[in-house]
Amino acid sequence: MEFLVLEQTPKLFPSYRAAVLRRPNGASLPSRELRLPNVTVDVAHLAQYNRVCGFRLRDELPATYPHVLAFPMALSLMTAADFPFPALGIVHVANEIQVLRPLRSSDAFSLSVRAEALRPHERGRQFDVVATASIADSPVWIGRSTYLRRDSDSTRAVGSTRAVGSAQSSINKSDIFDLPRATAVWRVPRRTGTDYARASGDRNPIHTSRLLARAFGFKSTIAHGMWTKARCLAALEGRLPAKFAVSVQFKLPILLPATVEFAANGGQIAVHDRRTGKPHLTGTIVDHDCADPDEGAR
Q1: Where are the alpha helices (DSSP H) in 79-209?
Q2: For the chain, which residues make up each domain, given as ranges?
Q3: Which of 72, 246, 267, 275 has its CA 20 to 30 A from that of 86?
Q4: Element spanning 263, H or E
Q5: Cβ-based neighbours of 170, under 8 Å, separated by 6 or more
Q6: 74 burial type by CB count under 10 A (0-12 exposed, 13-18 middle, 19+ buried)
Q7: What is the pLDDT along the chain (298 residues), one digit of tens a residue?
Q8: Do the beta carbons of residue 227 and residue 54 sit within 8 Å?
Q9: Strands 32-39 and 2-5
């Protein structure tokens, strides 16, 4: 593994330009880890993020916030010339976060990002991007994002009609019937995609442009999956353990504007369509003392 220490957070514009213009030129995931030392929190940006996702304004960082801080590094890695897949054809299908100790806005920490675990999937190939926040070389937060690169042959094999870039995952009947009972109704306005894009830097046009979202097979813009996960944790703020693991799978996209139902029961969380009951997100939250401490460092 090669370790590349960065002097500053990568600029997003060159990465987005590379996502459009650069052709992949790799057969495997790069054996490279990006490291950024001495990361500090911009409290104004944190406040913006908290408002968009529904968190209270406080010193403790939301569990999903380090994902946003690591996003420019992840995008830089995934748009590099030796990355095997085009960034525009990658779908975020799952995300796992481990909070090993609460992070605060006053903390200085390092961030590292690497890609690993390339593996076959019935619709193509999957891989993970792992981000880690550390203090004094000890991990305090670990995020694992699972991405799917659809292959044309495998897509035809499962009868998918969605364009590449769709956030849709496979839905089983059990996903609908096993959802916990709804505890809240959320009205998600059309601006949610644009507001989160500004706060997170994730400016994929399927979240911000109705015209381009339609070009990718959606009737309207869709909410970011990580906004949905963050909104779930915001709804549980004050009831989460100090150390915990939260894993979610992104199902059907939320077409904006939308009315959805949120459910939380016995460690299960879900967001589903209020009318049809079909899931947008399903997941679990467990006290980290009950989770495998090495699971996120695979």
Answers
A1: 152-157, 173-177, 192-200
A2: 2-297
A3: 246
A4: strand 258-265
A5: 123, 158
A6: buried
A7: 899 999 999 999 999 999 988 887 778 999 999 999 999 999 999 999 999 999 999 999 999 999 999 999 999 999 999 999 998 889 999 999 999 999 999 999 999 999 999 999 998 999 999 999 999 999 999 999 999 998 865 443 332 323 333 344 455 544 555 667 888 999 999 999 999 999 999 999 999 999 999 998 999 999 999 999 999 999 999 999 999 999 999 999 999 999 999 999 989 999 999 999 999 999 999 997 764 544 444 4
A8: no
A9: parallel
Q: Which two tokens stand for residue 37?
A: 């030392």
The amino acid present at 72, given as its one-letter code, is P
Q: Which residue has the tokens 């990658």?
A: 90
pTM of the model: 0.89
CA distances from 176 to 106, 204, 234, 253, 282 (A): 42, 28, 23, 15, 10
Question: CATH code for 2-297?
Answer: 3.10.129.10
Say how many C-beta atoms besides its own lie within 10 A of residue 207's C-beta: 26
The whole-angstrom separation of Cα 261 and Cα 275 is 9
Place of tokens 């044309």: 152
Give which of 235, 232, 287 is closest to 254, Cα–Cα.
Answer: 232
What the block records as the tokens of 15 is: 């990465």
- Token representation of residue 240: 């989460």
How far is residue 122's CA from residue 214's CA, in Å, rounded to a whole number?
A: 26
